[in-house]
Amino acid sequence: MFEKQVEKKVEKYVKKGVKILAIIVLGGILFLLANYVLMRLWNWLMPDLFGAGTVTYWQALGIFVLAKLLFGFGGGGSKGKGKSSHKKKLRSSHKCATWRRDFDEWKHYDQYWREEGEEAFKAYVEKIKNENHGTTKEE
Predict the structure, then answer these.
(1) Cα separation values, 137 from 59, 124, 127, 131, 134, Å
(2) Domain spans in the chain, listed from the N-terminal domain onward
(3) 40-65: per-residue pLDDT in tens?
(4) Which pick of 62, 72, 74, 127 has the fewest CB atoms within 10 Å?
């Protein structure tokens, strides 16, 4: 009885270890493959587009690491349980409600412009011209 329990535990840990090792190996292979694809894309596009030289595999790895350092590693990081994401805050924000209402009113813009807007704009331009001419004459 005790031997079966020990055997099951060992089998469980061996399976877990094999899965972890497989994930590490697969991740490494994908990383090396991504670097190779980056090198090939660089050597295919950059010399023709920008006159840049070709790069070796190790130079492409350096570019890849530099880009990750400059632009981030993706995923956005993990946040605490109590914290919500910025998008959720924005969606639930009541500040945006007035913006949405104002945006809904824009559907009438084209009709307004056809009926009153062009004439109102011309009248406004005339008013501005008259005001400018009045101030220039006084000075």
Answers:
(1) 70, 20, 15, 10, 5
(2) 9-71, 84-139
(3) 999 999 998 888 899 999 999 999 88
(4) 74
